[in-house]
Amino acid sequence: MEALKQKIREEGKVLSETVLKVDTFLNHQIDPKLMVEIGKEFARRFKDEGITKVVTIESSGIAPAVMTALKLEVPVVFARKHQSLTLTENLYRAEVYSFTKKVSNDIAISGDFVTAEDRVLVIDDFLANGQAALGLMEIVEQAGASLGGVGIVIEKGFQKGGDAIREQGVRLESLAIIDAMSPGQLTFRE
User: Which structural domain, as residue segments, surrounds residue 81?
Assistant: First the structure.
């Protein structure tokens, strides 16, 4: 997706060979026009999959997931990272390690919102080592739902997450795949 790649080139900051900061449009401040385009693109790519729910993880995956679900005309369900007083029963859980934050989170989704009748599209902002996407896929499996695919806004193609998902035979669609990066330089897969 060329508009996304251009935004990454213009506003992204490569902090190291593994850390890309895109907080001006995706992870902190959100560019709503770009999110609409991202949603349209994911909806276009997955329109024939019979998706009934879009699932993501709080918080950076919510904006692209909502825009995708809006275009697919289905609900969004997001996995919570923190226990809530209102989210205590009938839960599907997975443990997810964040390499960026260096912390493990026990994520949870209510079984009231993802069921065996659902065909789920997992959406997330980044794919590096794959922990968030794999955790969401585990929750989809626990629910007995079918997985229609995984949509990623930015994939770090030089890390192992994409391979781990593709090796499972899962359809993975990434809007921008970065093959290499270092301060001042980004190389995108064409």
Answer: 31-173
Instruction: Please answer whether residues 133 and 122 qualify as being in contact, where contact means their C-beta atoms are separated by less than 8 angstroms.
Output: yes
Residue 79: CATH number of its domain? 3.40.50.2020
- Give how many domains the chain has, as a whole number: 1
Q: For each of the chain's 190 residues, which pLDDT tens digit applies?
A: 999 999 999 999 999 999 999 999 999 999 999 999 999 999 999 999 999 999 999 989 999 999 999 999 999 999 998 777 666 678 999 999 877 777 888 999 999 999 999 999 999 999 999 999 999 999 999 999 999 999 999 999 999 999 999 999 999 999 999 999 998 899 999 8
Residue owning tokens 């998706």: 51
Distance CA 175, CA 154 (A): 6
Hey, what long-range contacts does 177-185 have (CB within 8 A, 24 or more apart)? 178/8, 178/20, 178/154, 181/14, 181/17, 181/20, 181/156, 182/14, 182/17, 183/14, 183/15, 183/16, 184/14, 185/14
Task: Answer yes or no: is 18 within a domain.
Answer: no
Predicted TM-score (pTM) above 0.85: yes
Q: Is residue 188 part of a domain?
A: no
In a domain, 19, yes or no: no
With respect to residue 134, please indicate whether it lies within any of the assigned structural domains: yes
Cis before 59? omega within 30:
yes
